[in-house]
Amino acid sequence: MVKMIALYKHPEDLDAFTQHYFGRHLELNGKTPGLIRTEVSKFFDLRGGTPEHYLMCEMYFENLDTLKASFKTPESQAAGADLQSFAGGLVSFSFAEVVAG
Amino acid sequence: MVKMIALYKHPEDLDAFTQHYFGRHLELNGKTPGLIRTEVSKFFDLRGGTPEHYLMCEMYFENLDTLKASFKTPESQAAGADLQSFAGGLVSFSFAEVVAG
Q: pLDDT per residue over A44-96, tens digit each?
């Protein structure tokens, strides 16, 4: 299993971001072919401070081939275009293979 | 559900790190009371470069109370001491609540 990890900085307009992300983007993202599971997590600081990032979204695929193949689909491209429309400057991506657990 | 996320920089001695981490640390860590699930992922770069981090370990707990309570247990403290013995300068922690997926 591999995953694409989207890491979001804190948005300036939290309400607008949250509304678009949870009300629209996640549904679009969920249509990505080959996507097995999505896990969205909101960071918090144990001491009540501000964590470095706001949100993390992990998207699981069977393997690297299915992940790469998904990029070429209209559904993935639509989700990507939507993302850029409201969070282009906030998000960064990394990729990882699940090796235990 | 909440998770503690341990993020590891690339170790200088990869073999020694890997041997200790997968051969010893994960087993110790798995004994932490209240720990529901652990997922370990190894980062890769889509273009074959070197990713920013080497490894991520996500440890899931039912809620913040069970996570905090686990810190006080001998098992968690043993895992923490073991971690400091071979990866103290490599690891950083963050915390997140799973909000979707």
A: 999 999 999 999 999 999 999 999 999 999 999 999 999 999 999 999 999 99
Cβ pair B41:A94 closer than 8 A:
no
> ipTM value of the model?
0.94
CB-CB under 8 Å, B101 with A40: yes
pTM of the model: 0.95
User: Which of 3.40.630.10, 3.90.950.10, 3.40.50.410, 3.30.70.100 is the CATH number of A2-97?
Assistant: 3.30.70.100
- Chain A: give the shortest CA distance to residue B69, in Å: 13
How far apart are alpha carbons B18 and B79 in whole angstroms? 16
